[in-house]
Amino acid sequence: MRDAEEQAAFAPSLPFALVSDRETVVGKGCLGIVAPGAGALEGRVRGYFAARPEGPRLLLGALPFSAGAREHLYQPADVVRGAGRAGFAAAFPPPALVRSPVPARTWTVVPEPPVAAYRAAVAQALEHLARGDEGLRKVVLSRSLRLTSDRPIDCFEVLRGLAEDPAVTAYCVPLAARDGSPASARVLVGATPELLLAKDGASVTSRPLAGSARRSADAGADRAAAQALSASDKDRREHREVVTAILDQLAPYCAELGTPEGTSLTSTASMWHLGTRIVGRLRDASVSSVELAARLHPTPAVCGTPRAAAAKLIAELEGYDRGFYAGAVGWCEEGGNGAWHVAIRCAEIEGAGARLYAGAGIVPGSDPAGEGEETAAKFAALLRALGVSEQYAAGVEDAA
Ligand SMILES: C=C(O[C@H]1C=CC=C(C(=O)O)[C@@H]1O)C(=O)O
Q1: What are the structural domain ranges in the chain?
Q2: What is 107-399's CATH number?
Q3: Chorismate-utilising enzyme C-terminal domain spans which residues (predicted)?
Q4: Which residue minimizes the CA distance to atom 7 of ligand 1?
Q5: 229 alpha carbon – ligand 1 mean position (Å)
Q6: pLDDT in tens, 83-130
Q7: pLDDT digit string, tens, across residues 149-159
Q8: Which residues are catalytic?
Q9: Is the ipTM of this complex over 0.90?
Q10: How remote is the CA of residue 196 from the centroid of ligand 1, in Å?
Q11: CB 370 within 8 A of CB 362
């Protein structure tokens, strides 16, 4: 497709939204998209702004998981930005009260692959790790759930539900239609607790997470899960791979770089994680957030170490295209500032269908059944926001 045709083909059906305790960014419409090309993304972004002197000086969108896949970055026609969540309720007001009862949705849930096949893939990954094939130390394997409702899914309702958790950045990214027709509009909706990179002037921040435990409604059990995670050697190794990789990638760009608070427990409404805040001061403040995000991505929180060997094994063992799952979502300004969040805990929604993704880091010592359960726990926030009972989904998974 030629550039002009491609631009015409992307007419977002919904606004872009990113909402967290830190900021709200809402973008409507599309003035143009960054065309694919052989050059590095940061060069194409610079070229885009140079060729388009009009419109907001901001690009929004998503980076795919796979290196060869096409990124989705576009310039909105209108942008509303604000600190914290202030702008969110105004941009996405809750629906008016409806007097006549709306019939409950019905859902079908199909695990793809079934959890037993996922456990088998984890066992295979453990064999590769034990042999140290291609120097492999960690690989992140995902699985998905395909959900179908009896009527179209309301992406904003899902977004509003996800945004209730103050620990996450909830996002909604309209994607290009698969076949160019607006009838097959796709939307990436999710709520991530993980910051890939934020850049403001010379200051850069990343907040990798790796190492997980399901939270519990029982306070004692919840505390015990957190303590066990904090003490787990397997989870600490899993986490260290991510922090080391990010420090290594950022070091050449930074005059100062460190992890001031070290590694600590952090939580969302449904999960405990190990997290480390990484902060740095750039030698050259003009480096773009897109360049830094592209350098860091995919971190060992979603791919593994070494990166190329892990990506190859993921392609072999998962057998599906991750698309934008485990990529990044965010924004960047013409001057280079921006924020990119790891695109996890998400679903690609199309009409009445949603495909949910969840992955888990595998290192020597991981247990296939435990990783299967961890991915089930990571589906919980989205299932809740969609209105699907977790027990129902678990029952389908057990039966598959
Ligand atoms: C890959 C995912 O989570 C990553 C982020 C936090 C903890 C993770 C873990 O413990 O495996 C994963 O690295 C996902 O949710 O799909």
Answers
A1: 107-399
A2: 3.60.120.10
A3: 117-378
A4: 210
A5: 14
A6: 988 778 878 877 776 666 777 889 999 999 999 999 999 999 999 999
A7: 999 999 999 99
A8: 138, 194
A9: yes
A10: 13
A11: no
